[in-house]
Amino acid sequence: MLPEDFTDHSEDVSLGFKPQFINKAVKIGEVPSLELNIYEVKHPSENDPRVSLSRDAFRLLAQYGVKRALIVVNSESSSN
Fold it and tell me: Phi first, then psi: what are they for 40, rounded to 5°?
């Protein structure tokens, strides 16, 4: 699904703000040709707090000056 120049790595991302829902963020890779960073964020909610997670994700991207990203959201307490 990703171009050949995709590089995978696991790098914990520190949050310089107090997120409403995100417990952990990890940069899992990047695609230089697309200027795309790929992140996985984890949250504890069983429900899907989309608006709050989106706000947290945008704050994360702004903190690091990232303009293009694919963010995978994963709940720690739900299989959805």
Answer: -120, 130
Q: Specify the amino acid at residue 35.
A: E
Q: Report pLDDT for 33.
A: 95
Assign 60 a pLDDT band (cuts: 50, 70, 90).
Answer: very high
Cα–Cα distance for residue pair 72/63, rounded to 1 Å: 18
- How does DSSP classify residue 58? H
Q: What are phi and psi of 37, to 5 degrees?
A: -105, 145
Query: Average pLDDT, whole number, for the chain?
Result: 91
Residue 43 CB neighbours (<10 A): 23
Residue 37 contacts residue 68 (beta carbons within 8 Å): yes
